[in-house]
Write a structure and sequence with these properties.
Radius of gyration: 21 Å
Largest sheet: 7 strands, mixed
Strand order of the largest sheet: 1-2-3-4-5-6-7
Strand content: 25-35%
Order of helices and strands: HHEEEEHEHEEEEEEEHHEE
Structural class: alpha+beta
Helix content: 10-25%
Number of strands: 14
Distance between the termini: 24 Å
Length: about 290
């Protein structure tokens, strides 16, 4: 997330292509490629997107690696990978430039994968809305262990890349003019079927709602915990407090539908979802 400056004004920054794309080979990128080939990208249900080859790209600035995804039927699919910065989020402009480069290349990919430690909300939104016929655009979250090689545990079960699902969120306008947000689940790429599938809401551990998103920082006004656990939920606490807590309201905060709210100044809402692997995803919706 981005934080609004004290004076409320956006700073004017001149960012060069070299700064944005981290032009040139780095030691870390070599490690990231090696790890991607070794461990692949873990998806829902323990499935893995496996790579038979991952190599550096030398003629591009914003696409850093080229790989081949090995599918269950033995077929190899071409993938271009764009890595985010060592520290800080992958920005919107990098997404634009990487897709532009991918479209300009003679050999079209089957996949374009953005891998980063953190995604700028607007960049994540743009990735989810890229419409390129026949090309799958994916996001993968990188483990921070990749920044601390000496602390990484060298186990065959270690995982450094996790597929980020695309949230399926809808805004509902009520008759009284107020709004509700409903989370329908996630859409994930299934490496077995080769299709984008919906996994519903059962994998959502927590989600946040900012009812008036200002494009600078996320301010959660409503927080929900859909994965109920009869042994560790809020109702026992409510009973222990002898009615001091509204049990009916607490139950609503275990759901997938928000409480009613009025449109704010910015006419946008932001929803942040954390799945049961601890992987975050972010979506922005306009009101009205």
């Amino acid at each position: 997330m981005r934080v609004k400056p004290f004076d409320g004004k956006e700073p004017k920054l001149e960012i060069t292509n070299e700064q944005l794309s981290r032009t040139g080979e780095t030691g870390k990128q070599t490690e990231w490629r090696d790890e991607l080939k070794a461990s692949g990208i873990r998806t829902i249900g323990g499935r893995i997107i496996s790579f038979s080859r991952v190599e550096p790209m030398v003629a591009t600035r914003f696409l850093h690696a080229e790989g081949e995804i090995l599918e269950d039927n033995g077929e190899n699919k071409k993938a271009y990978i764009s890595f985010g910065p060592d520290y800080g989020p992958l920005e919107q402009r990098q997404v634009e430039e990487a897709i532009k480069e991918a479209r300009s290349l003679k050999n079209k990919p089957d996949f374009v994968i953005f891998a980063a430690f953190h995604f700028d909300p607007e960049a994540a939104k743009d990735i989810d809305h890229i419409n390129w016929q026949g090309i799958k655009i994916l996001k993968a979250q990188m483990s921070v262990d990749l920044l601390t090689k000496d602390l990484r545990k060298k186990r065959s079960s270690s995982q450094s890349y996790w597929l980020i699902g695309q949230p399926d969120v809808e805004v509902i306008k009520q008759k009284d003019g107020k709004f509700k947000v409903k989370v329908n689940g996630f859409d994930y790429y299934d490496p077995v079927s080769g299709e984008i599938i919906s996994k519903g809401t059962k994998h959502i551990a927590m989600w946040f709602l900012d009812t008036d998103y200002d494009e600078r920082s996320l301010y959660p006004e409503q927080v929900f915990f859909p994965e109920g656990d009869s042994k560790r939920d809020w109702t026992r606490l409510a009973k222990a407090l002898n009615g001091e807590v509204n049990e009916e309201l607490i139950e609503q905060f275990r759901g997938i539908e928000s409480l009613p709210f009025t449109a704010g100044e910015h006419k946008k809402v932001a929803v942040k979802i954390i799945d049961n692997r601890g992987i975050e995803s972010f979506v922005i919706k306009r009101l009205g």
